[in-house]
Amino acid sequence: GAFSGVGLWGGGGGGWGVRVRGVRGGGRGGGAGGRAGERVVSVDGRPVDGLSVSEVVSLLRGDGVPGSAVALRVERGRAAWTQTLRRARLATDPVTVRRLDDGAVLIRVAAFTKGAGTRVRDAVRAAPAGAGVLLDLRGNAGGLVAEAAVAASAFLDGGLVATYDVEGEQRAVYAEGGGDTGRPLVALIDGGTMSAAELLTGALQDRGRAVTVGSRTFGKGSVQMPSALPDGSVAELTVGHYRTPAGHAVDGRGITPDLAAEAGAEERARTVLSGLGGGS
Fold first, then answer.
1. What confidence score (pLDDT) does residue 33 get?
2. Distance (Å, rounded) from C-alpha 187 to C-alpha 201?
3. Sheet holding 105-109: strands in order across?
4. How far is CA 231 from CA 83, 117, 185, 261, in A?
């Protein structure tokens, strides 16, 4: 639930390199002037054309020392400028819940850290009868697969969540029984929705449990498992790739939303949820 960074979220720019997708609200890192929509030109003087989003993020995080500076050059339209950001230790609340004006419940999951799945399930159980749920997975870089499976259990009555291979052996992830299968549900996704968050999205979409709104997800379908080393450190090794319940591969492809929406995605999602009977 904590990391070192500059408080910016990046995503693919549709053939135009890496763009700033969001700025951490109130965070020290993003407070230096980054704005959504700016295209990243260079980091500490190194051009980033041809680099992936993950590689650019790695450059921005650098050595991860709080207080260290990084020079970020960006452009918007014909204007380009360089700004200095300082890395900071940023903490996130993995799950936030609030009631919307129309009676629906917004559950935002920032990351699937330990305990996040249970918090999602508790929030759904505590929601008023008949109230729809807007599940916001935008900018969720993933986390623990087990936690994503628990979150899926909030909306599914058991059944398959995903499959994956480990050294040629197929394994499966299942939801627990007893989930709320009737409550209207819309999931918000974008290019920052990754890994375990994509696993949850794929399960809800393939099983017809949620309408997905937003933009194509990141496409990180790899599965990592920890391996303890003699010096006490831990190496995470990629052991396979997962597939959605319908057998769709996610790695390098992402998940296409049922309803595409960039600007105003949340408003569009709320309209859809209202149409499903989840809001007044």
1. 52
2. 7
3. 95-99, 105-109, 133-136, 185-189, 211-214, 259-260
4. 40, 32, 46, 48
Cα atoms found within 13 Å of the Cα of residue 24, Cβ hemisphere only: 24
**Which residue in this structure is represented by tokens 């936690």?**
147
Give the ranges where the chain is alpha helix by DSSP (H).
Answer: 53-61, 116-126, 145-153, 196-206, 265-275
Residue pLDDT, tens place only, 143-187: 999 999 999 999 999 999 999 988 778 999 999 999 999 999 999
Show Cβ contacts of residue 27 under 8 Å, excluding neighbours closer than 6 positions: 7, 88, 90
Which pLDDT score, from 0 to 100, does residue 274 have? 94
Domains of the chain by start residue, with CATH: 2-91 (2.30.42.10), 95-275 (3.90.226.10)
pLDDT digits (tens, 9 = 90+) for 43-58: 999 999 988 888 898 8
Q: Where does residue 65 rank: exposed (0-12), middle (13-18), buried (19+ CB within 10 A)?
A: exposed
**Cα gap 162→159, rounded to integer Å:** 10
DSSP for 218-249, written as a single string:
----EEEEEEE-TTS-EEEEEEEEEE-TT--B
Residue 188 clears pLDDT 60, i.e. is over it: yes
Q: Which residues are catalytic?
A: 195, 220
> What 3-state class would DSSP assign to 14?
coil
The string of DSSP codes covering 131-178 is --EEEE-TT---B-HHHHHHHHHTT-SSEEEEEEEETTEEEEEEEPS-
